[in-house]
Amino acid sequence: MGTDASGGTSSQALANGLETATRGAPRRPAVWQWVVSPLADNDRDGHTGDELHGFIRANVSGSKMPLAFSLKPYDPWGKFHLVSWARPVRSPGHWIAAYGWVSNYNNLNDQARTYYTDSSRDEGGGTGKYWDPTRHIAEMINVHTRVFVW
After folding, report:
1. H or E segment to which residue 38 belongs
2. Residue 14 within a domain
3. In the chain, what is the straight-line distance between the N-terminal and C-terminal CA atoms, in Å?
């Protein structure tokens, strides 16, 4: 995945690694290509959670493919944190793999959820399957890299 000497993996390096690792895989759609996309407020409603939820729904339900998010899992000064991390940690960033969703997105509540896997037991988090409100995950992406891999 192109992890550097300090333990970091850029979004483009992850996309390139996933491209190589999944090429020819039986579950990968024939026209699939891993890309890095900005998380933006394209509809100009003041929110990015709805945009992220749309990408998750399209990828998971349409293409049957996961997404990768780089974020600060539990920034001591952050507004939100991943449920998979029990306590604050100063982290340069952490990747999670989103594989599912539930509910329709509404900026007024947190019913829309993103299901993801985390493998951070040795870094201060947990390893397993979790979910968080999609709005929270979008905010954590926005305060970190503002991009995701799909």
Report:
1. strand 36-38
2. no
3. 15
Domain housing 105 = 34-149
Count of domains forming the chain: 1
Tokens of 75: 């920034």
Q: What is the pLDDT of residues 36-91, one digit of tens each?
A: 999 999 999 999 999 999 999 999 999 999 999 999 999 999 999 999 999 998 88
For residues 56 and 102, give the distance between their C-alpha atoms in angstroms, rounded to a whole number: 10
Residue type, 87: R
pLDDT of residue 116: 98
For residue 6, what are the β-bridge partners? none
Q: Is residue 11 part of a domain?
A: no
142 part of a folded domain: yes
Tokens 């333990």 appear where? 7
The number of beta carbons lying within 10 Å of the beta carbon of residue 28 is 18
Residue 54 falls within a domain, yes or no?
A: yes
- C-alpha 86/C-alpha 131 separation (Å) is 14
Residue 132 near residue 113, CB atoms below 8 Å: yes
20: enclosing H helix or E strand: helix 11-22
Helical spans, DSSP H, in 35-145? 49-57, 134-142
